[in-house]
Write a structure and sequence with these properties.
The chain is an alpha/beta fold. It contains seven helices and five strands. The protein has a five-stranded parallel sheet with strand order 2-3-1-4-5, with helices on both faces. Helix 2 packs across helix 3 and helix 3 runs parallel beside helix 4. The chain is globular and about 45 Å long.
């Protein structure tokens, strides 16, 4: 059976994860699973509420994401998953999938200067750029506390880690990022077609 390949695109809030993941997915023609899109679909079906409700829906969305990942990795698929992964929770879950399926993992971690992350987050809230179910306007203290750590979250799992500085998006060398993905995953089939 073909070995599955799991590319995890993570980072703090407002670090440019979604933009980078979509660009990689489109360029390499590899399916992308966005945890936020699943969460927002649940909001649309189940309704929105306070911040605690947002966290409950978030937990449900993670359960769905990991269930789908495991099924796809058992089939030998090549996928990209984008989310704000938490090493204290997600390292164990990804490791379990690796053991159960034998897949390979590549982490792409987005990061930016703290002042940039804060500005982006505040703009996102004031301009209503995200689904209202997230209740970002109630999460500022929580999110800013994570920015104070000023460290991109990296899962403690076997595999390569590629750090991408998104402080100035116009300076991101997407071709170089794609090249590094190909190089890291060399020998895993024609990744440009997701096989």
């Amino acid at each position: 059976m073909t070995q599955g390949v799991l590319v995890l695109v993570g980072g703090l809030s407002a670090s440019g994860k979604s933009t980078l993941a979509k660009r990689i997915s489109e360029t390499m023609q590899v399916p992308l699973i966005s945890r936020d899109e699943i969460k927002e679909g649940l909001f649309d079906k189940m309704g929105t509420g306070d911040r605690d409700w947002s966290k409950k829906v978030g937990a449900a969305s993670y359960l769905m994401v990991y269930t789908v990942i495991e099924v796809l990795m058992k089939s030998g698929a090549w996928i990209i998953v984008e989310s704000n992964f938490d090493p204290s929770v997600d390292s164990e879950k990804v490791q379990e999938i690796m053991v159960n399926t034998g897949c390979r993992v590549l982490q792409i971690v987005c990061w930016a200067e703290k002042r940039i992350l804060m500005k982006r987050f505040q703009s996102r809230v004031s301009e209503g750029q995200r689904h209202p179910g997230h209740r970002d306007e109630l999460a500022e203290d929580e999110i800013f506390a994570r920015f104070e750590i000023n460290k991109a979250p990296v899962l403690e799992v076997e595999g390569e880690v590629l750090q991408v500085d998104t402080t100035f998006p116009e300076n991101i060398d997407y071709a170089s990022v794609i090249h590094k993905i190909h190089k890291t995953l060399a020998g895993q089939g024609d990744v440009s077609r997701g096989t």
